[in-house]
Specification:
The complex is a heterodimer.
Chain A: H1 19-45, H2 48-64, H3 75-91, H4 94-107, H5 114-122, H6 126-133, H7 136-147, H8 152-159, H9 163-186
Chain B: H1 3-12, H2 24-34, H3 41-48, H4 53-70, H5 76-88, E1 110-121, E2 128-140, E3 143-151, E4 153-157, E5 160-168, E6 174-183, E7 187-188, H6 193-197, H7 204-210, E8 218-227, E9 230-238, E10 248-255, H8 261-264, H9 278-281, E11 295-299, E12 302-310, E13 318-323, H10 341-347, E14 353-356, E15 363-366, E16 370-374, H11 381-384, E17 386-389, E18 394-403, H12 405-417
Antiparallel strand pairs in B: 1-2, 1-18, 2-3, 4-5, 5-6, 6-7, 8-9, 9-10, 11-12, 12-13, 14-15, 15-16, 16-17
Classes of the chains: A mainly alpha, B alpha+beta.
Chain lengths: 189, 425
């Protein structure tokens, strides 16, 4: 779970020319947030390789902009926002757009993708499986709410929408989860 | 918090997968990318070796070799993704000429209202039906982002804000109607509450105004452009039961006030349709007489004029000719790009269109499926870049800029006048 970013305020004090200090700062950040960044990237893309690439890009960007730490209100929303923006950029790259059609069919149950196999085998519990099967806008908001336990304002900041939209998406996401759980209790989903 | 939320949080508090994705392998890969200055166990080894250049090269070569072996199983897709990412991050390396000058002390002075149209096939007949949404993009804590969003097109017009809505009429058509909903210095106008609460629904009074006479054709209207005081509209008219080929297309430029429900319903023949002729906007231009019908459409980097011409070779089909003129500021208050196309490509290789602020501090780079908002004068523009997803069926119809003290006023009003997407959407 991501904690308060206050203890990382010192990271912003690493002078841009002091490469050693900046690397040490990045190491601290990766220790604290590496898993969270990767998990969020995976939650958005549901692709292992892509989550690796996105995580690499996020920490590279963070490294290059460590001096901005003093300007951000919360390290965790800062990193999650970068993760989301980077994930969206990667998913929208020209090449991946071709792949997306296959993903779309897979989501509609017409194909069973490698990603679904991974989730089926490796998801830690049934709830995670169900959440990861939701459409992106619903699974993202649920994960930010329940896994990262962000406030409404923080979720709105990360998702780049209004708090009203977050509430609306949470409402629909909860309803979809309830339906899935009801179906699950009747047999396989 | 109810029981369901509590259970959800308990279940999702764990990591999603039983295997850890952020492992030592990935961590090394990140450190590897930072370059040769890192302090890692391998670096310690090199210290012992006295930082011999040959040793460094050898270790680097070994590592590259190891990575190549390790990466053999990575798919071509992954390589392509990395290439795309490298291209995307081009500006992190050697920038193309001309370089964009940055300013450490610069702040984001601009905000913009972005209006988009989304089309889908008309279930009631020919053509498409459209939905509209407006977003105010402004800086919050130094990051550009959407600070307000809602249905309809919220168009600044003088000191007022007008809401343009697409409402279904009784004949299976869709008409555009507009009303003033807010005023700077005052806020929400009292008579606007109904339109603000249900922007996609026509009120009874509006339906009465829009209702066509029996046997009259149904009309579908599409907004092509909104700005300052004018709107450009495509109208498709057809009679129920007729062939789609018999549908007629007309393009009008109107003053937004002509979209008041009592004006908008008064269509009929071309002569009766309230509109602004091209000669009224460009009085000095030659050959504008008789051009009652014309359109403002988007071309990369600018708003442009098209007019219809019936070609004798294409009977019943009109060709839309480009008119090489600059639209006056009364139509498009700001229509000049502050960046060259090479600079735009440098910021976003996938951009196909762009808008820049009159203050020269913010760019909206348009891809086919997103808008990237870049505060390009800031040294950390990459980090502060905001990506606004755009559906592929969405088209930009309005970009209106506010600067400095007007930004706060727009923010205040936009939050009041733009309602979040309804639960149904």
């Amino acid at each position: 779970m991501l904690e308060s970013g206050r203890e990382f305020e010192w990271i912003g004090c690493a002078a841009p020319e002091d490469a050693e200090a900046r690397r040490a700062a990045l190491g601290e950040l990766m220790d604290a947030y590496g898993k969270d960044v990767w998990n969020y990237a995976f939650s958005i893309t549901r692709k292992w390789d892509l989550a690796d690439d996105i995580t690499q890009e996020v920490f590279f960007k963070a490294y290059r902009h460590l001096h901005n730490f003093r300007r951000v209100a919360s390290v965790k929303t800062w990193l999650l926002t970068i993760t989301r923006n980077t994930a969206i950029d990667f998913m929208r790259s020209a090449f991946l757009r071709k792949v997306t059609l296959i993903d779309h069919l897979a989501e509609r149950g017409q194909l069973r993708s490698a990603e679904q196999e991974v989730i089926e085998k490796l998801a830690v519990n049934e709830t995670w499986k169900q959440v990861l099967a939701l459409p992106r806008k619903y699974r993202e908001v649920l994960i930010l709410f329940a896994h990262y336990q962000l406030s409404l304002k923080e979720m709105a900041d990360v998702l780049g929408v209004t708090e009203g939209t977050v509430k609306s998406r949470l409402f629909h996401a909860r309803r979809k989860m309830m339906t899935l759980k009801e179906k699950g209790s009747d047999g396989p989903v | 918090m109810d029981r369901f939320d509590r259970e959800l949080r308990e279940q999702l508090a764990k990591e999603p997968l039983v295997r850890n994705g952020f492992d030592e392998r990935l961590r090394r890969r990140i450190e590897e990318r930072l370059g040769p200055e890192r302090r890692t166990p391998r670096k310690a080894f090199l210290n012992v070796a006295g930082y011999a250049v040959a040793g460094l090269l050898t270790v680097a070569a070994v590592w590259i070799g190891m990575w190549r072996v390790a990466e053999q199983n990575r798919s071509l897709a992954d390589e392509a993704v990395m290439r795309a990412a490298d291209t995307f991050n081009l500006h992190q390396g050697t920038p193309l000429i001309p370089e964009i000058s940055t300013d450490e002390s610069a702040a984001i002075r601009s905000a913009f209202l972005l209006g988009v149209r989304r089309d889908q096939p008309n279930p009631e007949g020919v053509g498409v039906v459209s939905q509209y949404r407006t977003m105010l993009v402004a800086a919050e804590s130094g990051m550009p982002q959407v600070v307000a969003e809602g249905s309809g097109i919220l168009m600044p017009y003088g000191r007022e804000f007008w809401l343009i809505r697409a409402v279904p009429d009784l004949a299976g058509g869709q008409r555009l109607v507009a009303k003033p909903v807010g005023r700077t210095g005052e806020g929400v106008l009292q008579e606007a509450s109904e339109a603000l609460e249900m922007p996609d629904v026509a009120s009874e009074a509006e339906l009465a105004e829009l209702a066509p006479m029996t046997g009259e054709p149904a009309i579908l209207e599409q907004l092509l452009f909104a700005g300052n005081r004018y709107v450009s509209i495509r109208q498709v008219t057809w009679v129920a039961g007729a062939y789609a080929a018999e549908a007629q297309e007309r393009l009008w430029v109107k003053n937004v006030e002509m979209l008041r429900p009592d004006e908008s319903g008064k269509s009929g023949t071309a002569g009766e349709e309230p509109h602004v002729a091209l000669s009224e906007v460009l009085p000095g231009e030659k050959d504008n007489s008789g051009r009652e019908e014309w359109a403002i459409i988007r071309e990369p980097g600018r708003w442009a004029v098209r007019y219809p011409e019936e070609d004798e070779r294409t009977v019943n089909r009109r060709i839309w000719r480009a008119l090489p003129v600059m639209l006056p500021s009364s139509v498009v208050s700001h229509d000049r790009l502050d960046l060259g196309w090479d600079q735009i490509a440098q910021l976003d290789p996938l951009a196909k269109d762009a808008y820049t602020s009159p203050a020269g501090d913010l760019a909206a780079l348009v891809r086919s499926d997103a808008i990237r908002v870049v505060p390009y004068r800031l040294p950390d523009a990459t980090l502060r870049t905001y990506t606004l997803p755009l559906d592929e069926s969405e088209t930009i119809v309005m970009v209106q800029w506010a600067l400095d003290r007007y930004v706060d006023e727009w923010k205040r009003l936009a939050v009041l006048l733009l309602k979040p997407e309804s639960a149904a959407s």
